[in-house]
Amino acid sequence: MADEGGAAGKRVSGEGNELIVSTSTTSPRPRVPAVGLDVSSIRADFPILGTRVDGKPLVYFDNAATAQKPLVVIEAVRRFLAEENANIHRGVHYLSERATLAFDAVRDEVRDFLNAPDSREVIFVRGTTEAINLVAQSYGRTTLRPGDEILLTTMEHHSNIVPWQLVAGQTGAVVRAIPITDAGEVDLEAYRRMLGPKTRIVGVVHISNALGTINPVAEMTRLAHEAGAVVLVDGAQAAPHTPVDVQALGCDFYAFSGHKVFGPTGVGVLWGRASLLEAMPPWQGGGDMIHTVSFAGTTFAPLPAKFEAGTPAIAEVIGLGAALRYVRGVGFDAIGAWERTLLARATEQVSAVPGVRLVGTAREKAGVLSFTLEGVHPHDLGTILDADGVAIRAGHHCAQPVMERFGVHATARASFAFYNTLDEIDVLVRGLHRAREVFA
Amino acid sequence: MSRDLDELYQSVILDHNKTPRNFHELPPPASHADGHNPLCGDRLTVWVDVEGDTVKDVAFLGNGCAISKASASLMTAAVKGKSRADAMALADEFQKLVTGRLEGAAERKALGKLQALAGVSEYPVRVKCASLAWHTLKAALAGAGEPISTE
Predict the structure, then answer these.
(1) Which of A10, A266, A269, B63 is deepest in the core (most CB within 10 A)?
(2) B-chain residues within 8 Å CB-CB of A409?
């Protein structure tokens, strides 16, 4: 809970846009404000946003690293552990039955969240990283032949590069990088030229964590399919900010993480086409993924259990369900509109600071502002902003090829969520001016 | 806990960041070692020219934050002319300083200008920035006079 625990209605920020932090929230409700988003009411749902850093209100701009959790998620996890905890798909007793029902219901909610055709196509994993490793090691390892090509954009997160390099090493396949432009967009002409009969797999990030670029995933998928390749989309940054419709995208695999979509860590989702998943061998063996086991041989369970060996992160899955309900209750239309407002204001004000260079200026961008400030290393900037309570990320963002592409060692990154305010952007900008003074 | 930015970014640190001393390569037979902080991407190379038992010359090049750059610069000035053993001992004392384990006033004073980095101890995640140069120096010293570098 926040420091301000019982102090409902405590003011945590001045300057016109007063924010009320309260921990006495009710259950999630759809919000259809006349204009934009009722941000102060939203903020009241997130106890951590009442935190003070060295006496200053926390300004949380590290949402691309992990998002904060609304009370409904915290409460769903607590309630499950306090009232329903049992292992699932095993016992015949009361608690096990309740836990199983609650767990399986989330699978249906994820299906709905992704507009997937079938809940059996929803595999619970630890996170996006594990989802991609699963596809690389199960689908990739059994289908790739020497000389086959895996195309990845230059803006992939390391988690959508390294698993493919590992399986390329095991199979003799080759990983090739699709170039990106100076604005941080996929070079679609180059991509078209690279696609060919050798292309087996295309990996593309839906929204870049380092640049904010929203990639034309549907078009890239269509082109890949024409070449006979399957497409995996890393949706870690997209799921919290945009509606995802895997059927409209047309992709074959889609992965996202619970903790970036306001849910718990330790849980994520791999969605895959049933026809592909059914043909793929299990990745990990253990309990829950078998049909029958004998030392003469084992047969495997049907989807989705085939890919879910061992006891899953049950409480976290329950929390993920609450998070998805919450975010859909807020509504992606309102979220998108507000985050575009935040990004526009931040882009305008941050780029007006002398010495700032924006890294990632795609036409289609989500709420990520990556930049460098001349004469101030991003780590120093991170420390200086932290003194004002502002949390940003500084570094290579697990996307070193992106840093190399733009000729920088690191960037500072402010990444927004729908609970951020315009006043908070002012605090960030004041911090940038302060950093310039310190390093003048 | 309240932390003072001015304690961290003292003028001597800002000066060494802006104008690092001994910021160049050393020609052979000087030996060198590369330091890399994979979490933040900081990289630097430290050269040492050891004659007999004396660190005759020391220099560095690299990329990193003000703390890591200033630390490397101050380090080169501090160890030049010292014996290998004294340089190694200074590295240990420095590590104590930036992790807040240097007790006595006399011990602190013995570190001279390096004391400017004492403020780092208030910032646990920045300690590795200050230590990188010293770890790299130790690796370079370990390799000095040997036919192979530590790479």
Answers:
(1) A269
(2) 41-43, 63
Q: Which domains does chain A have, with CATH numbers?
A: 10-60+331-438 (3.90.1150.10), 74-327 (3.40.640.10)
The whole-angstrom distance between A431's CA and the closest CA on chain B is 12
Task: Delimit the domains of chain B by residue range.
Answer: 5-143
| Binary contact (B5, A394; C-beta < 8 A) | no
Chain B nearest-CA residue for A381:
B65
Residues of B with a Cβ under 8 Å from any A Cβ are 1-3, 5, 8-9, 14, 17-18, 39-43, 63-67, 69, 123, 126, 129
- A60-116: per-residue pLDDT in tens? 999 999 999 999 999 999 999 999 999 998 888 999 999 999 999 999 999 999 999
Q: Which chain B residues are within 8 Å of A377, Cβ to Cβ?
A: 64-66, 69
Q: What is the per-residue pLDDT for A287?
A: 86
How do residues A182-206 score in pLDDT, each as one tens digit? 999 999 999 999 999 999 999 999 9
CB A266 within 8 A of CB A288: no
Cβ-contact A356, A350 below 8 angstroms = yes
Which of A15-24, A199-208, A270-279, A416-425 is least confident? A15-24
The number of CA neighbours under 13 Å toward the Cβ of A259 is: 14
Nearest to A439 among B3, B14, B126 (CB): B14
**Considering CB atoms only, which of A384, A396, A403 is closest to B5?**
A384
Residues 375-414 of A with CB under 8 A from B: 376-380, 383-384, 387, 394-396, 400, 403, 409-410
Point out the residue among A55, A376, A395 whose CB comes nearest to the CB of B40: A395
Residues of B in contact with A410 (CB under 8 A): 40-41
Q: What fold does the segment set B5-143 form as a domain?
A: Sufe protein. Chain: A (3.90.1010)
Give tens-digit pLDDT for B50-61: 999 999 999 999
